[in-house]
Every structure is written in C-alpha cells, then in structure tokens.
Amino acid sequence: MAQTRQEAASSLDHMLLANVLSILEHQVRTGALSFSAAYDIYLAIAKDLRVVLSTKELESTRHQLEAAETRIPDS
User: Fold this and answer.
1) Structure pTM?
2) By CB neighbour count within 10 A (0-12 exposed, 13-18 middle, 19+ buried), where does 28 fall?
3) The predicted structure's pLDDT at residue 11
4) Interatomic CA distance for residues 59 and 32, integer angstroms
5) CA-based Rg of the chain, rounded to a whole angstrom?
C-alpha cells in the first residue's frame, strides 16, 4: 500500500514538473525569463520535490528551454 502511494506521488511530481516546464517555456518565449533563469527554476523545483532526473531528462529540458528562447513569441 505504501509503495503504491509513493508511486502515485512520484507520478504526480513528474506531471507537475511537466506543467512547470510548459509554463517556463512560455515565459522564455515571451521574454519574461531568460533560458538560464528558467532552467535554474526548473532544477530548484525538481530538487524541492525530490525528483531525481536522469541526464537524458536534464538534457531534454535544457534543449526545450533553449529552443523556446529562439522561437517567435505567441500573439
């Protein structure tokens, strides 16, 4: 039972991080945040949630935020 609860919490944490990433991408795209600041915020939230991210996940996140910085802002 405790294992199932822990797995559910972990899943929710990953969903929360996905939503945070989406928000940060938008903030970078609109110029409200720099890529560097957004990435630092993402890492701080992941650390606070005690989510362990793989190197592949970190590289993917970094790439997404860097790409957002070069996109044309939404109207």
Assistant:
1) 0.83
2) buried
3) 82
4) 22
5) 14
CA angle 60, 56, 64 (to 5 degrees): 5
Q: How far apart are CA 73 and CA 43, in angstroms?
A: 24
Compute the distance between CA of residue 5 and CA of residue 51 in angstroms, rounded to an integer. 15
- What is the per-residue pLDDT across 6-43, written as a single tens digit (0 to 9) for each? 766 678 898 999 999 999 999 999 999 999 999 999 99
- Which residue has tokens 């790439």? 63
Measured CA to CA in angstroms, residue 49 lies from 31, 43, 66 at distances of: 26, 10, 23
Written as six digits, the tokens of 5 are 């609860």
DSSP-derived letter for residue 34 is -
